[in-house]
Amino acid sequence: MTHQPAEETESGGVPPLEDFDPYNDAFRADPYPEYDRIRSLGGPVYWDYLDSYVVSTHADATAVLADSRMRLQPPDPVAELMATVVPESLRSMSRTLLFTDPPDHTRLRGLTRRPFASPRLGRVLADARELADAILAEALHRGHLEVVDELAFPVSLQAIGDLLGIPRADLPKLRDWGQAMSPAADIPAAPSSIDSAVAAYEAFDDYFAHLARARGENPGEDLFSSLVEAHQQGALSRSELHANAALVFISGHETLVAFTASAFLSFLRNPAQLDLLREHPDLAAAATEEVMRYESPLQLATAGGGRWTAEEVEIGGRTLPAGVRVLTFIGAANRDPAVYDSPDRFDITRPGARHLALGHGLHYCLGAALAKQQGTLLLEALAHWPVRLASEAVGAPEWLPLFMQRRLARLPVTVTPA
């Protein structure tokens, strides 16, 4: 089902997005010049590669994410087609917060949000800070740190694992399953990633079945116990229980992993900003917002599905027909010069960031508070870490070969006493 764009006219036609390739090395290293070009086209544009409409300005992105006429669930013909090509086990993920509209989204969000605002969160964050401090102290002793695997993953996995109620000894294997599933959520999913994603989700499904039996007999204060209780009361199906637990685990650590690596890279490239953070550690919260704006962990909203127009919609002065997919380029919106002064400058004193890195509107990230508080505690730890940093990377940093997710594959740094 292809919806060709109307020719651009003064009455609001939609121009095509031409010569756009987000899968090459140059774009992966620095997507922002291309985002500038797309924004310069004004309003939504049509990308024939994915038969989608693209929004890239902050105003249009905000409008799309807040508009109730923009649905996460695709039209029936598209859903029926997807059911024939998406493996059955992966279709369970369509029953998560990431892909559902009200009333299901309202129900699932209500069942999931409570632990993110509970006193338990404070204990989780305190333990995460203690772990981060220990890792940084050990790195100073060794003289080097690989930011992604030695700091970002351990801290983020422990935090979301403790909140969810996953035994710490199990976190490494769940990390591997999560990493196997992420490429299948890209735009488009690489064909070679599907088999690995299926195997990983089946492993998650089996794991959470066993954990549900244990929590049913001996519940705790964790999120998974809360979801098991909802399942026992008939408020949550078995597939919804397992799929949403997998989603919370994956999204709950991947955002912070991407954030941590990008934060270190941004400060390495802007040492005066690191000096400023060390002089004023109280800027850690503002610096967290700026890192999220400057290098958004997610470059597009809501995985590979985007939004679907439930009816004809006007965005940015252009009319989009009913039943089409709209992709929101968050990475572009967060560098919009109409909203941010000198948007390509990394500035931890930037007032009122208003970034969209964690979404907007009804589907604003459930774990936003956790993500921001984790980011802040990591930057506070960095501010008080008495070291000089230098990148060990030779040439350009290595980014994951994904469009949706912007994360460094690794970031080795040398560490010497200040």
From TrEMBL:
<keyword id="KW-0503">Monooxygenase</keyword>
<feature type="region of interest" description="Disordered">
    <location>
        <begin position="1"/>
        <end position="25"/>
    </location>
</feature>
<dbReference type="InterPro" id="IPR002397">
    <property type="entry name" value="Cyt_P450_B"/>
</dbReference>
<keyword id="KW-0349">Heme</keyword>
<keyword id="KW-0408">Iron</keyword>
<dbReference type="InterPro" id="IPR001128">
    <property type="entry name" value="Cyt_P450"/>
</dbReference>
<dbReference type="InterPro" id="IPR036396">
    <property type="entry name" value="Cyt_P450_sf"/>
</dbReference>
<protein>
    <submittedName>
        <fullName>Cytochrome P450</fullName>
    </submittedName>
</protein>
<dbReference type="GO" id="GO:0005506">
    <property type="term" value="F:iron ion binding"/>
</dbReference>
<dbReference type="GO" id="GO:0016705">
    <property type="term" value="F:oxidoreductase activity, acting on paired donors, with incorporation or reduction of molecular oxygen"/>
</dbReference>
<comment type="similarity">
    <text>Belongs to the cytochrome P450 family.</text>
</comment>
<dbReference type="GO" id="GO:0020037">
    <property type="term" value="F:heme binding"/>
</dbReference>
<dbReference type="Pfam" id="PF00067">
    <property type="entry name" value="p450"/>
</dbReference>
<keyword id="KW-0560">Oxidoreductase</keyword>
<dbReference type="GO" id="GO:0004497">
    <property type="term" value="F:monooxygenase activity"/>
</dbReference>
<keyword id="KW-0479">Metal-binding</keyword>
